[in-house]
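Operator note (shift B, R.M.): manual run for Feruloyl esterase C requested after the automated queue skipped it. Running by hand, logging everything below so the morning shift can see what happened. Input copied straight from the record, untouched. If output looks odd, do not overwrite the archive copy; leave it for review.
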Amino acid sequence: MQQIFSIALGLLAAIVPTISAASAGCGKSSMSSGTKSMTINGKNRQYIVQVPANYNSNTPYKLIFGYHWRDGTMNNVAPGYYGLRDLAKETAIFIAPQGIGNGWANNGGEDVTFTDQMVDTIKNSLCVDEKQIFATGWSYGGAMSYSLACSRPNVFRAVAVISGAQLSGCSGGNTPVPYLGIHGVVDSVLNINLGRQLRDKFLQLNGCQSKNAPEPGAGSGTHIKTTYSCRAGYPVWWIAHSGDHVPDPRDSNGQYWAPGETWSFFTQAIGNTASAANLLDERNSTLPLVD
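Run finished. Output pasted below as returned.
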């Protein structure tokens, strides 16, 4: 019986890898919204923090990083954060980092180090659910988000890459991470093949089943979403749209869908505890038959 219980606990850990984990900053109120600075490798780095208006220091919040595009700035990302802040309805802490030279070359891993320090600072100053830390960005910002999925898979629960490519490196890249890719079929800056390559890496890492991913015709004013069957808790979504290199793809009817899909993915990526518990119950009924 004890062996069966141990197996059950192991199954639960595999099915629900992200039970809420409160950070050291819970119970404190030591940081407010605004522009912050820190020194990384002798360089002054800045970022914008957006604390929920109704912030409760005893409530663990999602932490979402929004990385800007090439020649963009943190001020371009804040306060909207790729449309996610409105959808979060004050349930998340948002960070908009500033890249060196308005980019994310990540030379010597310095932008990953910058991110590490931001994560540590926020977790120690505010109440963060350490199992709900996410990254997103467009273009160079997407490349940086992909880099973090590779190098910090145990920190970032999921990433959403909009029109990205491998521009900021991929140190590591051996661990599954929930992955959402959004790309235009006629992207004239970063060809859609570059986005497919990022997707395919996580299809492999996440143990996804092979599946045809249809894409819309150029200029059709539509988008097509493909969801893959992957290892439990590690989904991969791919959304191809009919447009060019844009952060806010829209269909011909004017629908602006990317923020909603990203928010839905970040919510789904952490898994459904009730569904996982039901699945565990089903597996428990057969546990005596396990060798």
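Quick read of the result: The chain has one domain: 17-270. The mean pLDDT is 88.
Leaving this for review. - R.M.
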